[in-house]
Specification:
Number of strands: 5
Strand content: 15-25%
Distance between the termini: 65 Å
Helix content: 40-55%
Radius of gyration: 21 Å
Shape: elongated
Largest sheet: 5 strands, mixed
Structural class: alpha/beta
Low-confidence stretches: 23-28
Number of helices: 5
CATH superfamily: Glutaredoxin
Order of helices and strands: HEHEHEHEEH
């Protein structure tokens, strides 16, 4: 009799856990660390094309950074949070300028942080420096997603 009671309680417990897991929100995408080769495959192959043409199906943001940069360290959690907020609309990348020197050279990255905003149509926009979160949100909404208030 005691075994039956334990089994019933165990079934209730398992059912409760499964239901709790099913009601959790889906995990959003994190910021993706991108290499030069991945950039050429996913974003734009600057070796074989002279005219800008974005390969992606969603707008993207590329954070050019280094591991020792203070402003870059302050920007990182903002980009992580925004990658969760805009996970269905915008892809977020990070490119380490010390590891991906060719990519940094192609975009003329000579100070960091710099953020490249790439819409699905049109030319990208490169901004130098650490911008406040509200300003980054405004740029994403207006420049990448075309939202107006």
């Amino acid at each position: 009799m005691q075994r039956i009671l334990i089994w019933r309680n165990m079934r209730k417990f398992i059912f409760t856990i499964i239901m709790a897991l099913c009601t959790l929100p889906m995990v959003a995408e994190d910021v993706v660390y991108i290499t030069t080769e991945q950039f050429k495959a996913r974003i734009f192959d600057y070796k074989n094309n002279k005219e800008w043409s974005y390969n992606g199906d969603k707008p993207c943001v590329i954070d050019f950074y280094t591991t020792w940069c203070g402003p870059c360290k302050r920007l990182a959690p903002i980009m992580e949070e925004l990658s969760q907020t805009y996970c269905d609309q915008v892809v977020f990348y990070k490119a380490d300028t010390e590891r991906e020197r060719e990519l940094a050279y192609v975009f003329g990255i000579n100070s960091i942080p710099q953020v490249l905003y790439i819409p699905t149509e049109g030319r990208p926009m490169l901004l130098k420096g650490l911008y406040p979160k509200d300003e980054i949100i405004r740029i994403i909404d207006e420049f990448l997603l075309g939202k107006t208030e």
